[in-house]
Amino acid sequence: MTDTRLIAVTPARARRKAAEAPERSAISDADRRRPSVKATMTTLQIAFFSFLVIAGVGPILWLAKAALSTTQDTISQPFAWFPSGIQWGNLTAAWEQIQVGRYLANTAVMALGSTISTVVVTASLAYVISILRPRWAKFLSGAILVTLFVPGVISLVPLYLTVVDVPLVGVSLIDTYWAVWLPAAANAFTVLIVTRFFDEIPREIIEAARVDGVGPLRMFFIIVLPFSKSILGVIAVLTILNSWKDFLWPMLVLPGSELQPISVALARIAGKTDLSLQMSAMLLGLLIPIAVFLIFQRQILKGVSMSGGIKG
């Protein structure tokens, strides 16, 4: 009885110890215990950490400070700590005078439509390539992969001309949200990520469903989608963040002020509005993507690790 338990427990302990073993580095454990090396490593760690905090959080903190300061303070003493006091009224003034709420609503509509179109097109294409696997699936996958090597600036003019006069339909999508939603759906990077995720679904489940007479459309909804909630959630969060900060394409296809997102609207009114109100409007526009990142940071990091695997 005792021997049987030992045989069952020993491999598990060995695997746990192997997993918990410290990673080897360029500096040995003996050198790390030396006072000079220990002091140098601590100094370097503090320096790198401080640099990362200043580079990452510093601009956001300065924006918050400028948003709650007067214009004179921001211009004359940009790094002083509220010499005229905290101006909480800047936020309400920016909300009312610049109509931040309306532009945030436009941005939310733009991001939501881009997310839905991206998830639908990405999941459909990945399902065809990875699960249905027609004869031309490899050609389609290669064609999608090739588009990753085409710089976005090169395709900007053809894409704009297509939106101005849509082929076969002959209508213009300029100054409509469709001009943003439809190009956002064609994202080769997300297609490849989801395709790779679909490849990991056990083929036995797919084949068993086919034997039971499950059709392709029903298989997509009752088998593939439930398996793919995590990766599609990651794609949705990344698309929301990218749509929120997008500037160039919305500026080209949404020239009217009624539908413009906050990124384009703030640039348009930059020369006509008080600096403190501009900063307050920027801070208000930044709060939502920061909140989305903090809530879904684990899923975002998971998506970044998946993208790194594909690139490698």
Automatic annotation (TrEMBL):
Keywords: Cell membrane, Membrane, Transmembrane, Transmembrane helix, Transport
Gene3D superfamilies linked to this entry: MetI-like (1.10.3720.10)
Membrane-crossing residue ranges in chain numbering: 42-64, 109-132, 139-160, 180-198, 219-241, 275-296
Top-rank taxon, per record: Bacteria
Chain residue ranges for the region called Disordered: 12-32
Keyword Cell membrane: yes
ABC transmembrane type-1 domain: residues covered: 104-296
SUPFAM superfamilies xrefs: MetI-like (SSF161098)
One Pfam family per UniProt: BPD_transp_1
InterPro entries attached to this UniProt entry: MetI-like, MetI-like_sf
Membrane topology label: Multi-pass membrane protein
Localization per Swiss-Prot or TrEMBL: Cell membrane
Chief localisation class: membrane
The keyword Nucleotide-binding appears for this protein: no
Family, similarity comment: Belongs to the binding-protein-dependent transport system permease family.
Protein name: Carbohydrate ABC transporter permease
Species classification: Bacteria, Bacillati, Actinomycetota, Actinomycetes, Micrococcales
